[in-house]
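Hi support team,

I submitted a single chain yesterday and got back a structure, but I'm not sure I'm reading the token output correctly. Could someone confirm the output below corresponds to the sequence I sent? I've pasted both exactly as they appear in my results page.

Thanks,
R.
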Amino acid sequence: MLYAIVCILFACGLVTTLRPSKAETPQIELSAALFDGCPFICLDETGPFVEGLKAAFAGTRYQLKFKHVPFARATRELQSGKLDLLPGMLKDGLDDAVYPESWLYFTRMCFFSKVSDPWRWRGINSLNGRTIAVENDIIHTQEFSDFVQDNPLVTHLSGGDILKRQLQMLELGRIQSFTAEQTVLAYHLKQNNIAPDSVQNSGCFPPEFEYVAINASHPMAADIREVLTRGLTEYNKTFAVKLN
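Hi R., thanks for writing in. Yes, this is the structure output for that exact sequence:
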């Protein structure tokens, strides 16, 4: 009987020894660019780009290590293999990179007006006779770009503090609407202690999606792509309301 017990204990110990524990699962570190692109990605590791990456890799064998690097340099480092991931790229926007099927986040240019203004963006024809302000050289669509060119009702702004100047122009009645990226404007209002409902969203252009560029020379590039596609597909379900 004692011999049987010893054998059972030995067998259990052997099984335990042969079965790899979760802690022993090898982790693969991935370097991801972290640059100053608030509110989408900030140097303190906040913003939806960072949150999306962390969510996609949660529970996988990959461990993220964020590397502070300016965006322009990050593109070169990804192509040279010094960096594994670069968030915030248009799909296929960088040569020698691999992209997941799922997007990381999106930007959306919208029209903003006074809260009391019943006007709504319904396409180019809805702008007839309306005074608006836009940031110079920002092309929302080619049709819109053609419309605002040499249009006396359109103010083109360049330089710094554009959102501040647009809000002031709206308040003074110099314009009836302005265009801005919705997430960026919300961040500007919060940072400057301006009530979020001080202006209203009068309609938006279709969203433009941002992706994660993957170092194509990474030995696990295909698996990383699959993990990101699967993880971001699930994570992006939380943004369905914002895209409607």
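A quick pointer for reading it: Confidence is low (pLDDT under 50) at residues 1-22. Let us know if anything else looks off.

Best,
Support desk
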